[in-house]
Specification:
The chain has 334 residues and is of the alpha/beta class. The chain has helices at residues 11-19, 34-49, 66-69, 98-101, 105-110, 139-149, 156-169, 180-191, 196-204, 209-221, 237-243, 253-258, 288-294, 312-333; strands at 23-27, 53-58, 78-79, 89-93, 113-118, 129-132, 223-225, 230-235, 265-272, 275-282, 298-299, 303-308. The chain contains 14 helices and 12 strands. The protein binds guanosine-5'-monophosphate and manganese (II) ion. The site of guanosine-5'-monophosphate has 14 residues, from strand 11 and strand 12. Residues 24-165 form the DDH domain.
Length: 334
């Protein structure tokens, strides 16, 4: 596996430094997903098994969806904006930049030792100890190895949380990032007590009715351009209100667009507190992270996100144009 140039230690080095520290605060990215929360909580249980004091933060005061709420320890997550604890060390899990730490950036500043354990490739680094492996399908895979490096025998809670991270970041072992390492490590997690069926039910068969109603609206607004392989849609503030939906209810929408035959790239834009949030997904080799970066966002080649400072109509038209251009670049390369 190839770590980034910003990586300045290995997992043994991180584990050795962590052993010397008594209190930790862990945090992932805004708009948290299964890998972000699953990695954090798996590491929380492992550090606690070593007798450490550990708090887990939410980068922003967002409601968690039902899948995330199913993870053991999720009820202990506190919003960073209301956290006034004092920990020696800050561990950023699945989050590469201070911007994506949002309210937790201030907490990070207050800690004397900082770590990043992540799989998002960025050109900067924000911690004293950085371990970033973009080839890892999920941060949970890295955390799983870190647990081993810490000398902790993984228990059922650690296994369940880490498995949830791996399962969600690989789309249930279906995305391009799914490789032999995912299956090998998943098998270890199942041996340690993770239940694939329970985890899949909690994350993939647990959708709110509001989310299904929001999907109807999303489909009404969808532009499906099969000639170019692009599907793009949006949901407005009014759509959220009419469906009684919260932010997390919009998460599954992108999967519906992506699942359509002939769609190579899917995009969803959502009106969100005065800005527009976008999710981009590629089924072929189109690099949607590059497109997201054009708008100040980022992510992975096949799954990326962005925040658009402006109106929804402009966001749809600008993102559509950028994606069409990325699709034609790929076409030209053959
Ligand atoms: P999602 O569309 O589910 O919000 O995000 C897909 C992927 O892109 C995730 O790995 C997420 O961390 C990353 N991502 C989403 N939004 C942003 C953003 O604004 N900036 C960066 N750097 N990454 C993002
Ligand atoms: Mn991740």
């Amino acid at each position: 596996m190839a770590v980034t140039p910003q990586t300045n230690t290995d997992l043994a080095g991180i584990a050795a430094r962590m052993q010397e520290i008594d209190s930790f605060v862990l945090c992932g990215h805004v708009n948290p997903d299964g890998d972000c929360i699953g990695s954090q909580l798996a590491l929380m249980w492992a550090l606690r098994a070593l007798g450490k004091r550990v708090d887990c933060l939410l980068a922003r005061d967002d409601a968690l969806d039902a899948g995330l709420c199913s993870l053991p320890g999720s009820d202990e997550l506190v919003s960073a904006s209301s956290y006034d604890g004092a920990a020696q060390a800050f561990v950023a899990c699945d989050v590469p930049t201070v911007e994506r730490l949002a309210d937790a950036a201030d907490v990070q500043k207050r800690c004397s030792v900082t770590f990043t354990v992540d799989h998002h490739a960025v050109e900067s680094c924000m911690s004293q100890f950085n371990y970033v492996d973009p080839d890892a399908a999920a941060t949970a895979l890295i955390v799983w190895k870190l647990i081993e490096a810490l000398g902790v025998q993984p228990d059922e809670r650690m296994a369940h949380c880490a498995y949830a991270g791996l399962m969600t970041d690989t789309g249930g072992f279906r995305y391009q990032n799914t490789d032999a390492a995912c299956f090998a490590v998943a098998a270890e997690m199942v041996v340690a007590g993770a239940s694939p069926a329970d985890c899949a039910t909690a994350f993939f068969q647990n959708r709110s009715l509001a989310s299904v109603r929001l999907m109807e609206r999303m489909l009404d607004h969808a532009e499906i351009d099969l000639a170019d392989g692009l599907a793009i849609s949006y949901v407005t503030r009014a759509d959220f209100e009419a469906c009684g939906a919260v932010r997390a209810d919009a998460e599954p929408l992108i999967d519906t667009l992506r699942s359509i035959e002939g769609v190579r790239v899917a995009a969803i834009l959502r009106e969100n507190d005065g800005v527009v949030r976008g999710s981009l997904r590629a089924k072929d080799a189109t690099d949607v992270a590059r497109v997201a970066r054009l708008f100040g966002g980022g992510g992975h080649v096949a799954a990326a996100g962005l925040t658009y400072e402006g109106g929804l109509a402009d966001a749809v038209s600008d993102v559509r144009a950028a994606l069409l251009s990325a699709l034609s670049v790929l076409e030209a390369k053959g």
